[in-house]
Amino acid sequence: MTRLLIPAGLFVFWGTMKLTYYGHACVGIELACGTRLLFDPFITPNGLAKAVDVDVIPADYVLLTHGHEDHVADAERILKRTGATLISNFEIVSWYGAKGIEKAHPMNLGGGFNFPFGRVKLVNAIHSSVLPDGSYGGNPGGFVIETPHGCFYVSGDTALHADMKLLGEMHSLDFAVMCIGDNFTMGPADAALAAEWVGAKHVVGVHYDTFPPIMIDRKIAAGEFAKRGVELLLPAIGETMGM
Protein backbone atom coordinates (compact mmCIF):
# COMPACT_ATOMS: atom_id res chain seq x y z
CA MET A 1 0.00 0.00 0.00
CA THR A 2 1.52 3.31 -1.13
CA ARG A 3 0.69 6.48 0.75
CA LEU A 4 1.65 10.07 0.20
CA LEU A 5 0.52 13.16 2.06
CA ILE A 6 0.07 16.31 -0.01
CA PRO A 7 -1.31 19.76 0.82
CA ALA A 8 -5.03 20.31 0.30
CA GLY A 9 -5.89 21.55 -3.16
CA LEU A 10 -2.91 20.02 -4.95
CA PHE A 11 -4.28 17.81 -7.74
CA VAL A 12 -2.15 14.69 -8.06
CA PHE A 13 -2.96 11.12 -9.10
CA TRP A 14 -1.13 8.06 -7.85
CA GLY A 15 -2.08 4.53 -6.92
CA THR A 16 -5.76 3.65 -7.19
CA MET A 17 -7.55 5.98 -4.74
CA LYS A 18 -6.89 9.17 -2.84
CA LEU A 19 -8.45 10.18 0.47
CA THR A 20 -8.80 13.72 1.80
CA TYR A 21 -9.59 14.32 5.46
CA TYR A 22 -11.88 17.31 6.06
CA GLY A 23 -12.05 17.01 9.84
CA HIS A 24 -14.16 15.13 12.39
CA ALA A 25 -15.72 12.19 10.49
CA CYS A 26 -15.70 13.75 7.02
CA VAL A 27 -13.56 12.19 4.32
CA GLY A 28 -13.56 12.54 0.56
CA ILE A 29 -12.40 9.57 -1.47
CA GLU A 30 -11.58 9.85 -5.15
CA LEU A 31 -11.76 6.48 -6.87
CA ALA A 32 -9.48 5.34 -9.69
CA CYS A 33 -12.31 5.98 -12.16
CA GLY A 34 -12.43 9.64 -11.06
CA THR A 35 -15.71 9.41 -9.12
CA ARG A 36 -15.63 11.44 -5.90
CA LEU A 37 -17.36 10.16 -2.78
CA LEU A 38 -17.89 12.45 0.23
CA PHE A 39 -18.83 11.02 3.61
CA ASP A 40 -20.53 12.81 6.52
CA PRO A 41 -19.74 16.48 5.82
CA PHE A 42 -19.40 18.48 9.05
CA ILE A 43 -17.08 21.36 8.22
CA THR A 44 -18.44 24.89 8.72
CA PRO A 45 -19.40 24.34 12.41
CA ASN A 46 -16.06 22.65 13.14
CA GLY A 47 -13.55 25.17 14.47
CA LEU A 48 -10.70 22.78 13.72
CA ALA A 49 -11.62 22.81 10.03
CA LYS A 50 -11.86 26.59 9.60
CA ALA A 51 -9.17 26.54 6.89
CA VAL A 52 -11.30 24.24 4.71
CA ASP A 53 -13.47 25.98 2.10
CA VAL A 54 -16.66 23.95 2.00
CA ASP A 55 -17.66 25.57 -1.29
CA VAL A 56 -14.83 23.99 -3.25
CA ILE A 57 -15.09 20.44 -1.92
CA PRO A 58 -15.87 18.15 -4.88
CA ALA A 59 -18.53 15.43 -4.73
CA ASP A 60 -20.35 13.18 -7.17
CA TYR A 61 -21.99 11.24 -4.32
CA VAL A 62 -22.58 12.28 -0.70
CA LEU A 63 -22.95 9.35 1.68
CA LEU A 64 -24.43 9.90 5.15
CA THR A 65 -24.02 7.23 7.81
CA HIS A 66 -26.64 8.72 10.16
CA GLY A 67 -28.52 11.92 10.94
CA HIS A 68 -26.54 13.61 13.72
CA GLU A 69 -25.61 17.24 13.13
CA ASP A 70 -21.89 16.47 13.33
CA HIS A 71 -22.29 14.25 10.25
CA VAL A 72 -24.76 16.16 8.08
CA ALA A 73 -24.23 19.86 8.81
CA ASP A 74 -22.99 20.78 5.33
CA ALA A 75 -24.73 18.06 3.33
CA GLU A 76 -27.57 20.17 1.93
CA ARG A 77 -25.22 22.97 0.92
CA ILE A 78 -22.84 20.60 -0.85
CA LEU A 79 -25.59 18.56 -2.51
CA LYS A 80 -27.24 21.67 -3.96
CA ARG A 81 -23.95 23.19 -5.16
CA THR A 82 -22.52 20.05 -6.75
CA GLY A 83 -25.65 18.24 -7.90
CA ALA A 84 -24.25 15.12 -6.25
CA THR A 85 -26.38 12.06 -5.54
CA LEU A 86 -27.26 11.47 -1.90
CA ILE A 87 -26.86 7.91 -0.59
CA SER A 88 -28.21 7.14 2.86
CA ASN A 89 -30.96 5.30 4.66
CA PHE A 90 -34.58 5.75 3.59
CA GLU A 91 -35.48 8.15 6.42
CA ILE A 92 -32.57 10.51 5.79
CA VAL A 93 -33.13 10.50 2.03
CA SER A 94 -36.82 11.31 2.64
CA TRP A 95 -35.90 14.18 4.99
CA TYR A 96 -33.62 15.72 2.36
CA GLY A 97 -36.26 15.15 -0.30
CA ALA A 98 -38.49 17.57 1.57
CA LYS A 99 -35.67 20.11 1.23
CA GLY A 100 -35.59 19.74 -2.53
CA ILE A 101 -32.86 17.10 -2.81
CA GLU A 102 -34.37 14.76 -5.38
CA LYS A 103 -31.18 13.22 -6.75
CA ALA A 104 -30.86 10.51 -4.12
CA HIS A 105 -30.74 6.78 -3.57
CA PRO A 106 -32.29 5.34 -0.37
CA MET A 107 -30.97 2.14 1.19
CA ASN A 108 -31.47 0.05 4.31
CA LEU A 109 -29.26 -2.16 6.43
CA GLY A 110 -27.94 -5.27 4.73
CA GLY A 111 -28.85 -4.02 1.27
CA GLY A 112 -26.42 -3.29 -1.54
CA PHE A 113 -26.70 -1.56 -4.90
CA ASN A 114 -24.53 -1.45 -8.00
CA PHE A 115 -23.71 2.14 -8.90
CA PRO A 116 -21.68 3.13 -11.98
CA PHE A 117 -18.50 3.30 -9.87
CA GLY A 118 -19.03 0.05 -7.92
CA ARG A 119 -21.17 -1.60 -5.28
CA VAL A 120 -22.30 0.08 -2.07
CA LYS A 121 -23.56 -1.96 0.87
CA LEU A 122 -25.16 -0.40 3.95
CA VAL A 123 -23.95 -2.34 7.00
CA ASN A 124 -24.73 -2.36 10.70
CA ALA A 125 -23.58 0.27 13.17
CA ILE A 126 -24.56 0.47 16.82
CA HIS A 127 -25.26 4.10 17.67
CA SER A 128 -28.24 6.49 17.62
CA SER A 129 -29.61 8.74 14.90
CA VAL A 130 -31.77 11.84 14.88
CA LEU A 131 -31.79 14.65 12.33
CA PRO A 132 -30.96 18.25 13.27
CA ASP A 133 -34.61 19.30 13.62
CA GLY A 134 -35.43 16.32 15.83
CA SER A 135 -36.87 14.15 13.05
CA TYR A 136 -36.36 10.41 13.21
CA GLY A 137 -33.11 9.53 11.45
CA GLY A 138 -33.65 5.82 10.92
CA ASN A 139 -30.99 3.29 11.84
CA PRO A 140 -27.34 4.34 11.80
CA GLY A 141 -25.05 2.43 9.47
CA GLY A 142 -21.69 2.12 7.83
CA PHE A 143 -20.71 1.52 4.21
CA VAL A 144 -18.66 -1.08 2.38
CA ILE A 145 -17.60 0.20 -1.03
CA GLU A 146 -16.44 -2.34 -3.61
CA THR A 147 -14.90 -1.10 -6.86
CA PRO A 148 -12.85 -2.79 -9.59
CA HIS A 149 -9.74 -1.17 -8.09
CA GLY A 150 -10.27 -1.66 -4.37
CA CYS A 151 -12.60 -2.20 -1.43
CA PHE A 152 -12.95 -0.19 1.78
CA TYR A 153 -15.18 0.17 4.84
CA VAL A 154 -16.44 3.36 6.46
CA SER A 155 -17.70 2.46 9.93
CA GLY A 156 -19.76 5.54 10.71
CA ASP A 157 -20.28 6.13 14.41
CA THR A 158 -20.48 2.77 16.11
CA ALA A 159 -19.67 0.60 19.06
CA LEU A 160 -17.61 -2.53 18.56
CA HIS A 161 -19.98 -5.31 17.52
CA ALA A 162 -19.61 -8.91 16.43
CA ASP A 163 -21.11 -8.31 12.97
CA MET A 164 -17.76 -6.80 12.05
CA LYS A 165 -16.37 -10.34 11.92
CA LEU A 166 -18.74 -11.02 9.04
CA LEU A 167 -17.30 -8.11 7.08
CA GLY A 168 -13.88 -9.73 7.36
CA GLU A 169 -15.30 -13.00 6.04
CA MET A 170 -17.27 -11.44 3.20
CA HIS A 171 -14.92 -8.72 1.94
CA SER A 172 -11.25 -8.21 1.24
CA LEU A 173 -10.67 -4.66 2.48
CA ASP A 174 -7.79 -2.49 1.33
CA PHE A 175 -8.39 -0.06 4.19
CA ALA A 176 -11.04 1.18 6.62
CA VAL A 177 -12.17 4.55 7.95
CA MET A 178 -13.09 4.11 11.61
CA CYS A 179 -14.25 6.20 14.55
CA ILE A 180 -11.66 6.16 17.36
CA GLY A 181 -12.60 9.01 19.71
CA ASP A 182 -14.23 6.99 22.52
CA ASN A 183 -17.10 8.32 24.71
CA PHE A 184 -19.68 8.46 21.88
CA THR A 185 -18.15 5.68 19.75
CA MET A 186 -15.42 3.07 19.83
CA GLY A 187 -12.18 4.15 21.42
CA PRO A 188 -8.76 3.15 20.06
CA ALA A 189 -8.63 -0.26 21.75
CA ASP A 190 -12.06 -1.32 20.50
CA ALA A 191 -11.42 0.17 17.05
CA ALA A 192 -8.16 -1.75 16.78
CA LEU A 193 -10.01 -4.98 17.53
CA ALA A 194 -12.64 -3.98 14.98
CA ALA A 195 -9.90 -3.49 12.40
CA GLU A 196 -8.61 -6.98 13.14
CA TRP A 197 -12.09 -8.44 12.77
CA VAL A 198 -12.82 -6.72 9.44
CA GLY A 199 -9.37 -7.60 8.13
CA ALA A 200 -8.12 -4.05 7.57
CA LYS A 201 -4.36 -3.59 7.96
CA HIS A 202 -4.61 0.17 7.41
CA VAL A 203 -7.13 2.38 9.23
CA VAL A 204 -7.81 6.09 8.83
CA GLY A 205 -8.98 7.28 12.24
CA VAL A 206 -11.86 9.78 12.44
CA HIS A 207 -14.31 11.24 14.97
CA TYR A 208 -11.70 12.38 17.48
CA ASP A 209 -10.33 15.65 18.98
CA THR A 210 -13.26 17.80 17.76
CA PHE A 211 -14.85 18.10 21.21
CA PRO A 212 -13.32 17.68 24.71
CA PRO A 213 -14.95 14.28 25.42
CA ILE A 214 -13.32 12.75 22.33
CA MET A 215 -9.76 14.04 22.69
CA ILE A 216 -7.24 11.24 22.24
CA ASP A 217 -3.57 10.59 22.90
CA ARG A 218 -2.32 9.82 19.40
CA LYS A 219 0.69 7.84 20.53
CA ILE A 220 -1.41 5.59 22.76
CA ALA A 221 -4.00 5.19 19.99
CA ALA A 222 -1.37 4.19 17.45
CA GLY A 223 0.02 1.71 19.97
CA GLU A 224 -3.34 -0.01 20.35
CA PHE A 225 -3.47 -0.59 16.61
CA ALA A 226 0.17 -1.64 16.41
CA LYS A 227 -0.48 -4.37 18.97
CA ARG A 228 -2.80 -5.97 16.41
CA GLY A 229 -0.55 -5.38 13.42
CA VAL A 230 -2.67 -2.53 12.07
CA GLU A 231 -1.39 0.84 10.89
CA LEU A 232 -3.34 3.85 12.21
CA LEU A 233 -3.29 6.82 9.84
CA LEU A 234 -4.15 10.28 11.19
CA PRO A 235 -3.85 12.82 8.38
CA ALA A 236 -4.08 16.50 9.22
CA ILE A 237 -7.29 18.28 8.31
CA GLY A 238 -7.10 19.22 4.64
CA GLU A 239 -4.41 16.71 3.77
CA THR A 240 -4.71 14.04 1.12
CA MET A 241 -3.17 10.57 1.09
CA GLY A 242 -2.91 7.90 -1.54
CA MET A 243 -4.53 4.62 -0.64
TrEMBL record:
<keyword id="KW-0378">Hydrolase</keyword>
<comment type="similarity">
    <text>Belongs to the UPF0173 family.</text>
</comment>
<dbReference type="InterPro" id="IPR001279">
    <property type="entry name" value="Metallo-B-lactamas"/>
</dbReference>
<dbReference type="InterPro" id="IPR036866">
    <property type="entry name" value="RibonucZ/Hydroxyglut_hydro"/>
</dbReference>
<protein>
    <recommendedName>
        <fullName>UPF0173 metal-dependent hydrolase WKV53_22040</fullName>
    </recommendedName>
</protein>
<feature type="domain" description="Metallo-beta-lactamase">
    <location>
        <begin position="23"/>
        <end position="207"/>
    </location>
</feature>
<dbReference type="Pfam" id="PF12706">
    <property type="entry name" value="Lactamase_B_2"/>
</dbReference>
<dbReference type="InterPro" id="IPR050114">
    <property type="entry name" value="UPF0173_UPF0282_UlaG_hydrolase"/>
</dbReference>
<dbReference type="GO" id="GO:0016787">
    <property type="term" value="F:hydrolase activity"/>
</dbReference>
<dbReference type="InterPro" id="IPR022877">
    <property type="entry name" value="UPF0173"/>
</dbReference>
